[in-house]
Amino acid sequence: MLYNSTRNKDIRLNASKAILKGLSDDGGLFVPESIPHIEKDMRTLAGMSYTELAYEIMHLFLDDFSEEELRTCISSAYGKNFDDPMIAPLSYACGSYYLELYHGPTIAFKDMALQILPHLLTTSAKKNGISKDIVILTATSGDTGKAAMAGFADVPHTKIMVFYPHGGVSDVQRLQMVTQKGGNVEAVSVDGNFDDCQTGVKQIFNDKAFRDEIGGKGYQFSSANSINIGRLIPQLVYYAYAWCSLFRNEKISDGEPVNICVPTGNFGNILAAYLAKKIGIPIDKLVCASNINMVLTDFFESGIYDRNREFHLTSSPSMDILISSNLERLIYFISGCDDKATSSFMQELADKGRYTITEQMKKELSDFAAGYASEEDTFREIKRVYDETGYVIDTHTAVASHVADKIRAKLSDHPMIIASTASPFKFAGSVVDAIRGRDKDMSRDGLSMIDELETLTDMPEPEAVKEIRHAEVKHDGHISISEMKEAVARFLD
Predict the structure, then answer these.
(1) Where are the alpha helices (DSSP H) in 128-193?
(2) Is position 440 annotated as part of the catalytic site?
(3) Residues 432, 281: Cα–Cα separation, whole Å
(4) What is the pTM of this model?
(5) Using one digit for the tens of pLDDT, what is the confidence trace for 275-294?
(6) Catalytic pick from 9, 21, 40, 110?
(7) Which of these CATH numbers, 3.40.50.1100, 3.30.1140.32, 3.30.1390.10, 2.60.40.10, describes 90-108+232-462?
(8) Domain boundaries, given as residue ranges, for the chain
(9) What's the alpha-carbon Rg for the chain, to the nearest Å?
């Protein structure tokens, strides 16, 4: 299995080298030259544990890893660090199945991939004789930062620096990052939004002179964002596991498809569902759910991607994104794997902030449906689900839940799986306000609200929250966008 750049098919790397690079030198993202197909039938896969299923799917894409190497990475990633032996359990409420992806150490879905990425990365370095220390640069809208820092903390021969938007993450998200222990980690807040942080990281990656400079000091860059295929491929597993769980529990018949609704920001999580369908997992529609930063909803409805719009800070901050990086991979696939066309679209986005796909490409989007939830919709959905069933969901999951409920009548009558991407405790203030029917107040999103949520719902406080209550703040850096490269240089010195 070789990987091309979305912007230049002549760039071809095996999986371990693509993982090490993170981002192609031409600014493109790595994609498999061809999409493999699962080798075993779904009935057989349904009898497997999460780790067994992970191997069956991941070895299709990471075939330059030996079986022993890949199984070791998987077993190291998914174990007692998750608080549920199922790893990704399903809960039923209000006519949908909620795929709980927040049982890892940082109580967000990013753990599902970022617990294994450090193992894939360090194994890739050994396989390729890399003697340089690997420097992870990551932009985060809230959850990736902590999950990446936790995954890479004190991993030998690695360093990680995380940039997050100042004032653009929840209190719990911020505290999780700024209290992270580890001699090789750093978190810095940036004056700007997530798109600014992400663009700044990409510019650093694409700065050849700076890469050469840090290379001379014994470092090389890589990424922990979902632009890294080592982060993307593990995400296919939980969609396959969700189908297997329903089949095992006799909720669906052999071969029966499901619909999947994903709260979407940078497009990596729903792209993984798209790839899961392509490898043969029975999936019908992929529902892309946005908050009021609805650039993706507009794209799927019109074929026009336009980031030239007002940016909104919402109660679902991990989705407050106007430049969805992983959409580039979908553009590549629906263009017939046309690297020149993809490069042209991305140049238009950089120059004009918008591009329009062709009519033929729009036809290739038939796997998708899309919708959005306003802030009022989000809060009403949290209350509706709680009042009707006692089940508690966070703000991001509520966006998807609202969209799924609204769009259900337009879809085929298959079970709906909603990707539940974060613990309600991560956004306790918003969740409590919604359940109590109070006006939204972002300033209430602190640790005191966790106590109120625990009392209100009788849900136990997760260990990840207990850890930050009295933890020492270790990272208090605050910079402008223009200072990001300088901050990286200081960190490495």
Answers:
(1) 143-152, 171-178
(2) no
(3) 37
(4) 0.92
(5) 999 999 999 999 999 999 99
(6) 110
(7) 3.40.50.1100
(8) 90-108+232-462
(9) 21
